[in-house]
């Protein structure tokens, strides 16, 4: 598998289990790229929905993807703190300047005080039936949701206090190089 280069601009492609495109983020700058981890940043980037609708992200975000975990984490930098949006998803693959994953509907919204809400359980149940998710997906997502809850409680990974500061600093460094 190819590895994205630091400072490189890539697209992020989210698919559904049936192979159909769900959403595309047009431009994300790679801050770290290894075979297992991609950390990126974007700000006011164009997002294209499957139905053709478009919108632009409102705030700077640091994005965390892992090749072994069934979730990815978007850290949204707002004036009143960092909000996290976690997509329960397949591990990522990277090819041709595109980071790709399958979105499995369940989301977790984490607030600056580390309280959280699990979202879209009804959407998961509906798509599970419509797209015939294998039983293994339930087991994998349950296990990864537990892992995610541990990370939140222990403030590990992107939830660690110094994560945002370190990667925001790196983002500003690369942004200056490109200006």
What does this structure look like?
The chain is of the alpha+beta class. It has a single domain (8-171), classed as FomD barrel-like fold (Beta Barrel). It contains three helices and eleven strands; from the N terminus they run βββββββββββααα. The protein has helices spanning 121-130, 135-154, 161-178; strands spanning 9-15, 21-33, 37-42, 46-49, 54-56, 61-66, 71-78, 81-89, 93-95, 98-110, 116-119. A hairpin with a 5-residue loop joins strand 10 (98-110) and strand 11 (116-119). The longest helix is centred in the C-terminal third of the chain and has 20 residues, at 135-154. The two termini are 30 Å apart. The mean pLDDT is 96.
Mean pLDDT: 96
- Based on CA inertia axes, which overall geometry fits? globular
Quickly give the CATH architecture. Beta Barrel
Radius of gyration: 16 Å
Output the CATH class name. Answer: Mainly Beta
Strand order of the largest sheet: 1-2-3-6-7-8-10
Detail the poorly predicted runs.
Answer: none
Strand content: 35-45%
Largest sheet: 7 strands, mixed, barrel
User: Number of helical runs?
Assistant: 3
Order of H and E elements:
EEEEEEEEEEEHHH
**The CATH homologous superfamily:** FomD-like
CATH topology: FomD barrel-like fold
Q: Strands, helices and their partners?
A:
Blueprint: E1 9-15, E2 21-33, E3 37-42, E4 46-49, E5 54-56, E6 61-66, E7 71-78, E8 81-89, E9 93-95, E10 98-110, E11 116-119, H1 121-130, H2 135-154, H3 161-178
Parallel strand pairs: 1-10
Antiparallel strand pairs: 1-2, 2-3, 2-4, 3-6, 4-5, 6-7, 7-8, 8-10, 9-10, 10-11
């Amino acid at each position: 598998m190819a590895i994205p280069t630091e400072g490189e601009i890539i697209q992020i492609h989210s698919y559904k289990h049936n192979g159909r495109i769900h959403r595309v983020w047009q431009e994300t700058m790679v801050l770290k790229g290894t075979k297992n981890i991609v950390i990126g940043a974007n700000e006011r980037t164009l997002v294209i929905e499957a139905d053709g609708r478009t919108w632009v992200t409102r705030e700077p975000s640091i994005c965390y993807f892992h090749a072994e975990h069934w979730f990815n984490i978007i850290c949204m930098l707002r004036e009143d703190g960092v909000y996290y949006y976690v997509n329960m998803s397949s591990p990522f693959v990277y090819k041709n300047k595109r980071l790709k994953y399958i979105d499995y509907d369940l989301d977790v919204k984490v607030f600056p005080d580390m309280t959280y809400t699990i979202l879209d359980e009804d959407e998961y149940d509906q798509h599970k039936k419509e797209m015939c998710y294998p039983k293994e997906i339930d087991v994998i997502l349950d296990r990864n949701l537990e892992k995610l809850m541990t990370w939140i409680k222990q403030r590990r990974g992107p939830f660690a206090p110094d994560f945002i500061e370190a990667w925001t600093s790196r983002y500003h460094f690369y942004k200056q190089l490109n200006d």
